[in-house]
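can u do me a favor
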């Protein structure tokens, strides 16, 4: 489904472009439909930048991104608009993903209107179905984001992403702001969605236990590079790189 090939990104900060800093350095990986690739690494190792590159939210300096057999590296705005439905991101703070002044119902209807779908009964039926899928009832539709719990809000964000029928979803610390009990419920919803719709996930997290439980393969980022990638069990049992060992020792069961 997704092939990322030798992708590099350099940020230039400061006056007149300043000193270039390589955030993502010659990174390659592949992801199959219905599978999860976990992405771990210390803060600043380049995980979020890599996710943004893959989603084409920022341009890469070099390298290629192939999605469903089509090279999208140089897709223009119009081409990307179509693709946005298929490639989405779930952020750690669901509140920041929703308009605070809009009701939940309006936020969920918005993606249909963007697609020029105007049939109100159809939209209402679809929204109700997706809400049920994520374990929420229609009573929340008239509420505003501040009237929902963190877990409910993240479910709304998942429903909003799912209703566009994505094939690839970046999960950027999707449960880090939630209580442990709620975390498990949100992960369950994501697992169900993956099973039912064959969605591929790139799962970024600092929670190494969670990422192990959710990913078939795990890639370790260090200073902008993927320094090792292995099936989840193997990586935790026999990390090849010293850096991975240190990372696991520091953060496992933290
Ligand atoms: N917009 C930007 N402009 C300049 N430098 C940036 C920008 N975004 C990120 N960086 C730098 O790029 C490097 C990688 O950052 P990135 O956010 O991708 O890391 P990360 O692994 O996702 O970190 P975290 O786990 O803290 O979210 C860091 O050195 C960061 O300071």
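np, heres the sequence
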């Amino acid at each position: 489904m997704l092939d990322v090939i030798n992708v590099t990104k350099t940020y230039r900060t400061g006056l007149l472009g300043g000193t270039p800093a390589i955030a993502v350095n010659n990174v390659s990986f592949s992801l199959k439909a219905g599978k999860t690739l976990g992405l771990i690494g210390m803060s600043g190792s380049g995980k979020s930048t890599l996710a943004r590159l893959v989603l084409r939210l920022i341009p890469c300096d070099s390298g290629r991104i192939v999605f469903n057999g089509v090279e999208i590296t140089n897709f223009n705005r119009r081409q990307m608009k179509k693709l946005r439905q298929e490639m989405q991101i779930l952020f750690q703070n669901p509140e920041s993903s929703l308009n605070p002044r809009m009701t939940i119902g309006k936020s969920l209807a918005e993606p249909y209107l963007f697609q020029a779908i105007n049939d109100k009964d159809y939209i209402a039926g679809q929204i109700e179905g997706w809400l049920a899928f994520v374990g929420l009832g229609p009573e929340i539709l008239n509420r505003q984001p501040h009237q929902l719990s963190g877990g409910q809000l993240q479910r709304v964000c998942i429903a909003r992403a799912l209703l566009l029928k994505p094939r690839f979803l970046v999960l950027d610390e999707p449960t880090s702001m939630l209580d442990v009990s709620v975390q498990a419920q949100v992960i369950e919803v994501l697992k169900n969605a993956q099973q039912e719709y064959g969605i591929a996930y790139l799962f970024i997290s600092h929670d190494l236990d969670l990422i192990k439980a959710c990913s078939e393969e795990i890639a370790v980022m260090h200073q902008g590079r993927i320094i090792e990638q292995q099936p989840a069990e193997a990586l935790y049992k026999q990390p090849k790189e010293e850096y991975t060992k240190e990372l696991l020792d520091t953060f496992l069961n933290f």
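The chain has a mean pLDDT of 91. hope that helps!!
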